[in-house]
Amino acid sequence: MTFPISENALLGKYELGKLLGCGAFAKVYHARDLKNGKSVAIKIINKNKISHNSTLMSNIKREVSIMRRLTHPNIVNLFEVLASKTKIYLVLEFVKGGELFARIANKGRLNEDLSRKYFQQLVSALSYCHSRGVFHRDLKPENLLIDENGDLKVSDFGLSALTDQIRDDGLLHTLCGTPAYVAPEILTKKGYDGAKIDVWSCGVILFVISAGYLPFNDPNLMVMYKKIYKGEFRCPKWMSSDLKRFLSHVLDVNPMTRITIEEIKRDPWFKKGFKDVKFYDLDFGDKFMVVKKEENVGFPLNAFDLISFSSGLNLSGLFDEACSSVEDSERLVVEDAPERIIEKIGVKVNEEGKGNVRLKKMKEWGVELQGQDGKFSISLEVYQLTNNLVVVEAKRLAGETVHFDELWKKKIKPGILSQ
């Protein structure tokens, strides 16, 4: 059954409802999918407010690219990414029950069995994230939602990190997180293990929902940091001895001896009533499909490929910081091998003759084309999407747009598209 499109319909697909939340550059609305009538949450990001802020742009890129990797019952699902000239729309799973933080703030601490249930679901989600190379880095009750069935959902991956952000020393170095929930090793600014700081934050969350207050707290931020660094906290009398013992292992200030996710799963306190979730885990590319109209064949792309290549929804001007305008850069999706693409580029450069264009190899599947007189420079990079599909990205690095048009659009691009 398809529902009628109202005047309030967003891009002809979703009917917007009430405002759920509001931030500096984004608003979240309840909405209805006009195809099936189901509820969704739509995060609407104002491009004008983020276009000049590289940090905000990076956070949005990270959030979307990470969420497309994750398909777990205890993680908020990202269904779709859409865009208009002024807005980016993230279509998310609607979680009816609201924040776990609000539940604690309104009703106080939870009983131990319910605390354990939520902690078990949090650990299940976290274990899955880590197995996919994702570290949340900002776990707190405000980022944990409760659905209508009373189950926990992890949200807000804007500060998350991937394994490719780990430096040569094997550690992450970006300082992030919410003060009361940050691990002591973050405060030393010497680098940290993403998995171990997530475990620490989980421990703080478990303490908060079980006790009704923070383990480390002080109006003076530096005093609070000293308490965190020293691991100074006291469990309330009503906590069971097993829970107190367990918390001492999770909130261990030494990351080398702190309990790991796998050790948590084997702990007697944690294991009580624990049932590991069974679910179908989509492959990385499966969550977003773009249809090639001429063949009606679907192929997988990640979230930012989807944003960039969807017809009429091109956001390359927002995300290509190296180019001054969309006209100075272009992406093609081509059914070919990366080696053949580089070979075709070389053929076209040779056809120019007389050394008018110099080809300089940048990386395995990337080259820079430089004019002999140094008046222009163009970079060409090839990215493999699937076994038989690649993206070719062309960027003007220097020189006039006319040189980019003449060499790329009129000569090399047709050569790449030819059989």
Automatic annotation (TrEMBL):
GO molecular function: ATP binding; protein serine/threonine kinase activity
UniProt keyword Nucleotide-binding present: yes
GO biological process: signal transduction
Record-annotated NAF domain positions: 296-320
Catalyzed chemical reaction(s): L-seryl-[protein] + ATP = O-phospho-L-seryl-[protein] + ADP + H(+); L-threonyl-[protein] + ATP = O-phospho-L-threonyl-[protein] + ADP + H(+)
One Pfam family, short name: Pkinase
Keywords: ATP-binding, Kinase, Manganese, Nucleotide-binding, Serine/threonine-protein kinase, Transferase
SUPFAM superfamilies: Protein kinase-like (PK-like)
Domain of life: Eukaryota
EC numbers, comma separated: 2.7.11.1
Domain Protein kinase, first and last residues per copy: 14-270
Binding site for ATP: 43
Signal peptide: none
Required co-factors: Mn(2+)
Family as reported in the entry's similarity comment: Belongs to the protein kinase superfamily. CAMK Ser/Thr protein kinase family. SNF1 subfamily.
Protein name as it appears in the record: non-specific serine/threonine protein kinase
Origin species: Lithospermum erythrorhizon (Purple gromwell)
Organism lineage string: Eukaryota, Viridiplantae, Streptophyta, Embryophyta, Tracheophyta
